[in-house]
Amino acid sequence: MNIELHTLAEVQNVSGEEGNFTVTVKKAPRYVDMEKCIACGECAAKCPKKVDDEYQAGLSKRKAAYIPYGQSVPLKYALDGENCIMIQKGKCGACEQICPTQAIKFDDKEEILDVNVGSVILTPGFKAFDPVDLDYTYYKKTPDVVTSLEYERLLSASGPCAGHLVRPSDGKEPRKIAWLQCVGSRDINRCGNGFCSSVCCMYAIKQSVITAEHTTGDIDQTILYMDIRSHGKEFDKYYESAKKGGINFVQARPHTILPGPDGNGAIIQYADKSGNMVEEVYDLVVLSIGLQAPKDAQQLSQTVGFELNKYGFVEATSFEPVSTTKAGVFSSGAFNAPMDIPQAVTDASSAAANAAVMLAESRGSMTQDKVWPEERDIAGEEARIGVFVCSCGTNIAGTVDVKAVSEYASSLPGVTLVENNLFTCSTDTQDLIAAKIKENNLNRIVVAACTPRTHEPLFKETLKEAGLNEYLVEMANIRNQNSWVHQDNPEKATEKAKDQVRMAVAKAALLQPLSKMSVDVTQKAMVVGGGMSGMTSALGIADMGYDVVLLEKSDMLGGNAWALSKTWRGEEIKPEVEKLVAKVENHDKITILKKAMLKTAVGSVGNFVSEVDVDGETKAVKYGVAVVATGGKEYKPNEYAYGESDRVKTHLEFDKMLDSGATSSADSVVFIQCVGSRNEERPYCSRVCCTHTVESAIRLKEQKPEMSVFVLNRDIRTYGLREDLYTKARQLGVIFVKYTLDAKPQVSASGDSVSVKVADPMLGGRELDIKADYLVLATAIVPNETKELVELYKCATGDDGFLTEAHPKLRPVDLSVDGLFVAGLCHYPKPLDEAIGQAQAATSRAGVILARTELPLDSIKSEVTELCDGCALCVDTCPYNAISLESYEDKGKEHRRIVTDKALCKGCGVCMATCPKGGVEVNGFTMDQLKAQVTSALAGL
Amino acid sequence: MADFEPTIIGFLCNWCAYAGGDLAGVSRLKYPPNMRAVRVMCSGMVHPDLVVDALKEGADGVIVMG
Amino acid sequence: MSANKLGSVMVVGGGIAGIQTALDLADSGYYVHLIEKSAGIGGVMAQLDKTFPTNDCAM
């Protein structure tokens, strides 16, 4: 209720300054009254005008009266003013006539709003590259060359072919598909996009994997790539499993695509690794299109007044990755640089943190909390059930005989009142329901209408308004799961609706008021780890006004950052570390515990208690949330003559030499990539090493242009804008040579030189023998030990030892235990700017909990009954570790039973299904209630 | 058996199968009206007794979707 | 710098980044205006079929 959504809206002007902006917003007319629209879809059904459907990437048509897609938010129709015949030509009006709620407003006008806000955050996303101007792709000139976004819709169950993959030319299922990578990315010559779009390798692999799932029989899939960039968490595993699954990966950048025989499919011509020309016919070709800055980037930057970089993305620094050049204005997501979903979600929380910190003094000044009337006590009352049957215009009533259903409902036991409403969800019906509850002293409500997933919250509120406990409502889904799917069988649909109402009434009679649950929040945070990530989070949380305890295991803050030289943007790191350490050390809300180790942790979100060993002394800390930022370290290899010769260095060791200029005497330097990464032991990509190598190679070439610099690599993964560095390195003459795991470079060291032998595929596999002054090993990043911490909190790590987030896409900063957040290298290898971004994101996520004094909980929770005998079967099955055992005394005898932690329990009921004796139940979904539904469903037999 | 109309009890997880059922409606897909759905918060909450009871009380089939 | 800072934020763009930003801020005590240029929020992620590595539905 504290988010006001303005759709069809654009920013026109911004004035004012940090803390107090006035933003002028232009809202285009929707031509539909959002208050009245009930999303029945009649307008779209009647609308005669067909328009290309943007949601389906133009592959199919929508109407001029439309919703963007089935699950749109808001779920309200709109008229597309540019295409509506009535608005354009003054004739038609079909939608107005059919609309059952008179929601159509042809005279709707554009609105201009002035909105005062303390901060502005820009998240306009990206523009997908349009390959229509790239002649060689034949896109739009032959039907079976599609973009990856179009292909996404072709695969989708909600797409134009309902998930049954067919190619556009002849509607046949393609058996041979090729993906062309880097279309509109890594291409200065043809489109000026020198950057890597970061996400296309992974989405192409995903599409090929999903394609294999969607089709039967043999299917031939090939991805034509330059470097596979699977540098994200768990990405390399996915890549390897795709390879094992039979997807072909061919390193090539095709220069010609031609229409296939008879206009079906397409022919791709390319030079393979060894330079031979290959020509292949494919049934379908997918162009993996890149992510460009959004269309309105320039305009937005001028209106708001901040700078863009040369590619049109937001200009930012590594230390303030989501701050624009204008104070008080932040940006997140693909507007900052091409990025994948988890990175965008992290970025989003990071921008939120920056705004929250800036406006900390005004937190809560403009938000509201709703106050409800006191609840009526219904204990001891017989069930008096009110049933409200919705016609939903004709959506339900057109198929289901709602009169018959209503009459039938009156005959059911416990039912006191039945009403049939045209729209049970409308505002006036809510008033009516509330009035009926009071008039008839109803104590249970059944709403037979649409789905509880969208509408139960509304009816819960109506019950609360009427002084009833919100859990006394049950819905019968007679629209989405009945009238809409059984349109061709009204008789059976009506029969089913009666059954559904009977089931809902049976359950409703057994519903009990559930008490509101909440936990008090200790408005204090603990941060584990005093590196850049930990310090950034601690400072952010403290700047929001909360106390923070920062634990550092060594006697010095700063961690790995002290060993780093420059960011990929070329910024000096050490001065920034010094600044941050000083800020953290001087902050009156931050308590720093050095030489500190976490010993215990009990409690759950809002209320944790830990004992911390501080240099031999035990201290107790109470906190509501914790940020885990325990960091990682550079892997020390045991191969490639490391340790045998002082000419073989790791990156961090070599950086010191670069900084001191000691490298300028060298004539030849070789880098070997993926040392300790992407192998059997550590199957992940360490993400930062390619960029680090390319940076170092550039520095060497700039120190001494005639130096020979070789980079032996498997794929160069300079993702995003880092690609510019790779381009620059090649321009400076750095030589990149590919090697594979089964033909790793051979190294022998003697005296002042190192000999490196490697087979160069570009030279037909001929062996290069390089005499180098230095060999630099781009070694893996490994996480610091977190075993004890993981056991204490019962959170999890993956096989590689990195902490596992709650959801890989949508909750990339939350750990699986509520109230715990993660930042930096302990989550996955990442460069400093991303670690800082994630640390800021953790600040925001922590702030969500710390902002309140108590945390409301859903009341659908498991609860122990008197039948529990403490057998503990359920303890291990609980996926949330919410169940423990306790002992108690009854009549002098010792007994055991379980206790559930309400803050940890998610109400999934695995315990209930496990228990052989009814010792634990889920409120709102008890065995009795579910049984009543089953019995009543079968009562008609 | 040609005109056999089975009665099926479905236990549908609120977060996936039940949501899928809703989406089938939004997409106006068609399927036979033989199933009666019981919404659960997770398919893991479906106690074996519920399945056995359904079959004892005359259901021709039980489907747990999650 | 202005003396009185407002406890509200405008988020421009209703894709996954904008939605997450808006939710975080609203949940931490700030009033949010979420501006979306199309008729509904969701952005490109809503167009995606599935997401890896879980192959979850993107919706």
How would you describe the overall organization of this protein?
The complex is a heterotrimer of chains A (941), B (66) and C (59). Chain A is of the alpha/beta class and 941 residues long. Chain A has six domains: 29-109, Alpha-Beta Plaits (2-Layer Sandwich), CATH 3.30.70; 127-292, FAD/NAD(P)-binding domain; 385-515, Rossmann fold; 520-633 and 783-856, 3-Layer(bba) Sandwich (FAD/NAD(P)-binding domain); 635-780, FAD/NAD(P)-binding domain; 862-922, Alpha-Beta Plaits (2-Layer Sandwich). Chain A is 26% helix and 26% strand. Chain A contains 23 helices and 51 strands. Chain A has a five-stranded parallel beta sheet with strand order 11-18-12-13-14. A five-stranded parallel beta sheet of chain A has the order 28-27-26-33-46, with helices on one face. In chain A, strand 40 (753-760) and strand 41 form a beta hairpin. In chain A, helix 5 (200-214) packs across helix 6 (235-244), helix 14 packs parallel to helix 20 and helix 17 runs parallel beside helix 18 (723-731). The longest helix of chain A is centred in the middle third of the chain and has 20 residues, at 490-509. The radius of gyration of chain A is 32 Å and the shape is globular. The two termini of chain A are 46 Å apart. The mean pLDDT of chain A is 95. Chain B is of the alpha/beta class. In chain B, 29% of the residues lie in helices and 26% in strands. Chain B has a three-stranded parallel beta sheet with strand order 2-1-3, with helices on both faces. In chain B, helix 1 (17-26) links the parallel strand 1 and strand 2. With 59 residues, chain C is an alpha+beta fold. In chain C, a hairpin with a 4-residue loop joins strand 3 (50-51) and strand 4. The longest helix of chain C is centred in the middle third of the chain and has 12 residues, at 16-27. The radius of gyration of chain C is 15 Å and the shape is elongated. The model of chain C has no long low-confidence stretch (mean pLDDT 85). Classes of the chains: A alpha/beta (941), B alpha/beta (66), C alpha+beta (59). Chains in contact: A-B, A-C. Chains A and C meet through strand 1, strand 2, strand 3, strand 8 and strand 9 of A and strand 1, helix 1, strand 2 and strand 3 of C. Strand 9 (119-122) of chain A pairs parallel with strand 1 (8-12) of chain C, so a sheet runs across the interface.
